Structure formats: structure tokens, C-alpha cells
Amino acid sequence: MNNLLNTFLLILCVGVVAGVGHYLTNVRQPAKLQNIEDTIRLASLQQAQVSELLVEQSASRELAEQTLTRWKTRYKEIPEDLNTATMILYLEDLTAEGFERFDVVLQGVTNKGDFSYYTFKVNATAYFSSMYHFVWHIENNREFYRIRDLKINYTAVYKENQQTERPRRFDMVNFEFLLDAYFAGDEGMSAAGDTLVPVPRDLLPRHDPAHNSFFPVVRTDLPPNDEMLLDVEASELISIVGRTAIFDSGGFQYVVGEGDRVYLGSIVKVDPNTMQVRVQLNKGGSVMAYDISLDVEPIQNVQQPGVEARPVDN
Predict the structure, then answer these.
(1) Which residues are bridge partners to 56 per DSSP?
(2) What is the DSSP string of the chain?
(3) Gap between the Cα atoms of 77 and 69, Å rounded
(4) Same domain, 67 and 88
């Protein structure tokens, strides 16, 4: 009987131990393990978020430093007050040379609260290079002006030459735009005089235009001969002496040599062996080389010299 009881108690103890082990191993420990894994994942996520925030903080600090540097090194000036007479004098200084016409009309004044600005409508005629210089100074000078709605067109201006009394053509551009002149800015908006930092020249655009897109490549009309140069096409080659050629134009003789200027071109070569003169002429953008030959027959049989034209090799 005692053996049976002992056996029963032993089996009961084993069952209890097995049950407790099963509960600890298959129920309680997995739940703790899951909690630990969730805690680890949460910590990793928080660490990643912290790292991302640190990166964003560094980028924001760098951006703030760059913005502050640009603010401290600003070079534009917004005066507390600006009258139209002062502005007109400033514009007249910029348009003193190279302008045929410069008309300015006040459109009004705008108050934005933080600043105010005048708006002018400008219509002008000038050489392209002069217009470019004007725009360059407006954009890069210390005065805070802004050009908008710029429109440019080619135009030809004719003026009478006082010596020849003949009209002479000048290739210019006609342009119009709106010009805003700022003033009355809030405190700190304009650069103070003692903190003015000049802009490095290599950061500024070119002061001279690289190309004039409005200059006609081929002209429909030729410029007048207001310098009274030799017109080889309206003259007669009468003699070649060494490297010198003599032309007759209506009873007036021209003596020219290699490199000398003539109307629309220059003398390229004087050849005493072949009795020919080569002339290069630019007729409205079309460049041609002309060989003018001298007849070497006896004087009493002099004929009109031959003229042969052909394009200049590139």
C-alpha cells in the first residue's frame, strides 16, 4: 500500500514539474522573449530616428549658416527715401554715351509694408553694347533696381554726315522695359555702409557682351562712302608700279598699296608680274575677292580693264 502511494506521489510530482516546465517554456518565456524583441526593435527604431534628426539638424545648421552669411554679405542698398529727381540723375549717368534716345515715364509707386518701390516705363534706342552695359549696371550696382518685361528689337538710325552731307546708317536696338526702384525698407533689410562687402569680380557676369545677336549678318543696303575712299568698282586701273597701283576715278587719281583700305574693303595684293590687283570687298556680309587686271597693250590701244569676282575661301 505504501509503495502504491509513493508511486502515485512520485507520478504527481513529475506531472506537476512537467506542467510547470511546460508553462514556463512554452507559455511564459515566449511572451517575455516577444516583449524583449519588441523592446529591441523599438530601441533600434528610436535610434534610427535620432540619427535622422541629427543629420537634419546638421543640414539645418549648415543652411542657417549659409543664409546668415549671405545676409551679412548682402551689398544692395535700399534707401529710407528716394525721390524721382535723384533716380533720373542716376539713370542719366548710365545713359550718357551710346544712347540715341532714353524716355522714362513714372507708372506709380507701390507700398508693400516691408518696402516700397517706384515703377517706371522706359523706352530707349542705343547701341547694343550700350544697352548691355546699362542692364549690367542696373543688376550689379549697389542700388536696388529691378528690370522686368524687357523687349528688344533691331533698328537702323540714319544721321547726316556733316562733311559729305550724306546719310550714314547706324545699327542700334530699340528696347523697352519696366524698372522698379526700391526704397523705405524695414530696418536691417539694406546693407549698412560699414558692412558693405564687394562682390568678387569672377562671380559677376561679363561686363561686355560676348555677341551682338541684333547686328545684321547680311545688309540689304550698303553704307555710304562718307570717307571718300577709293571705289574700285567705279574706277579704272591705269598703272602698276612695283607694289603700288594707281586708279582713276572721274579724273581723280588714287595711289594704293597692299593693305590699304578702299570702299567696302581693302587691297589684298598688287602683283607687278601678272599686272593684277586683288581686292577683297564686304558687300553687306557677302565677302568677295576681285582680281582687277591691267591691259599691257600699247597706250593707244588701252581697253577697259577686266574685273573677275569670286567668293573668298574660308
Answers:
(1) none
(2) -HHHHHHHHHHHHHHHHHHHHHHIIIIIHHHHHHHHHHHHHHHHHHHHHHHHHHHHHHHHHHHHHHHHHHHHT---B--S---HHHHHHHHHHHTSSSEEEEEEEEEEEEE-SS-EEEEEEEEEEE-HHHHHHHHHHHHHSSB-EEEEEEEEEEEEEEEE-TTT--EEEEEEEEEEEEEEEEE-PPTTSSPPGGG--PPPGGGSPPSS-S--TTS-SS-SSPPP-TT----GGGSEEEEEETTEEEEEETTEEEEEETT-EETTEEEEEEETTTTEEEEEEEETTEEEEEEEE---S-GGG--PPPEEEEEPP-
(3) 17
(4) no
Q: What is the pLDDT of residues 64-110, one digit of tens each?
A: 776 655 555 556 777 888 888 888 899 999 999 889 999 999 999 99
| Contact (CB, 8 A) for 291 and 311 | no
201 in a structural domain:
no
Q: Which tens digit of pLDDT belongs to each residue from 212-227?
A: 776 655 455 667 777 7
Q: For residue 264, name the pLDDT band (cuts at 50, 70, 90).
A: confident
Alpha-carbon gap, residue 16 to 24, rounded angstroms:
12
**Lookup result for grid cell 517554456:** 25
Q: Are residues 107 and 173 in the same domain?
A: yes
pLDDT surpasses 70 at 288: yes
pLDDT 10s digits, 107-130 = 999 998 888 999 999 999 999 889
Enclosing domain of residue 304: 232-311
